[in-house]
Amino acid sequence: MASEVNGSQVCERSELSPQWWGNHYLDGFDHFVKRELKIPHFQRYMDDLALFCDSAAQLVEAREVAAQWLWQKRRLRLKKPRAAPRPTKLPCTYLGYRVARTGPRPTREVFRRMQRRVSDAVLRGSTERIERSVASYRGIVTFGGLPATEPDEP
């Protein structure tokens, strides 16, 4: 929802505030990773992050230094402080997707959550909620490169 103030469109606080504050709060960390740790490839969405480089030893060291920075500067802890570096040829779970060289796929948990959401909407009898849930499901599946009717089977 947008509001109009003095003839200009303004986003409601509830729409973008969490993303904006998350990016603002961790902006210093982004600069630290690129400038100080010199990690060649780094991706962060809100509080989920992935570091990429050719040296597993460099990743282990970077993880330790990053954990110290996050605690000292932001009082944040890594969710998995001992996660081992993995080769990118192996799939991994990131942001609710199983990411592999063939592309991203929604995880089973995403499908279970969507089934619960749609079932809950049906039980409540909310047509609008059902439509929103189905639209969300289609977006997740489409981004993952799956046809909208294919379940996530091994």
Structure summary, number of beta strands = 7
How would you write the strand order of the largest sheet? 5-6-7
Report the structural category. Answer: alpha+beta
Largest sheet: 3 strands, antiparallel
Distance between the termini: 40 Å
Q: Count of helical segments? A: 4
Overall radius of gyration: 20 Å
Uncertain runs: 148-154
Q: What coarse outline follows from CA principal-axis ratios? A: globular
Query: Averaged pLDDT, please?
Result: 81
Strand content: 15-25%
Helix content: 40-55%
Write the element-wise H/E pattern from the N-terminal end onward.
EEHEEHEEEHH
Provide the number of structural domains. 2
Structure notes:
The chain is an alpha+beta fold and 154 residues long. The chain has two domains: 2-85, no CATH class; 91-154, no CATH class. It has four helices and seven strands; from the N terminus they run E-E-H-E-E-H-E-E-E-H-H. It has helices spanning 13-37, 56-74, 108-124, 127-143, and strands spanning 2-5, 8-11, 41-45, 48-52, 92-94, 97-100, 103-106. The protein has a three-stranded antiparallel β-sheet with strand order 5-6-7. Strand 3 (41-45) and strand 4 (48-52) form a beta hairpin. Helix 3 runs antiparallel to helix 4. The protein starts with a strand and ends in an 11-residue tail after the last helix. Residues 148-154 have low confidence and may be disordered.
In summary, what is this structure?
This protein has helices at 13-37, 56-74, 108-124, 127-143; strands at 2-5, 8-11, 41-45, 48-52, 92-94, 97-100, 103-106.
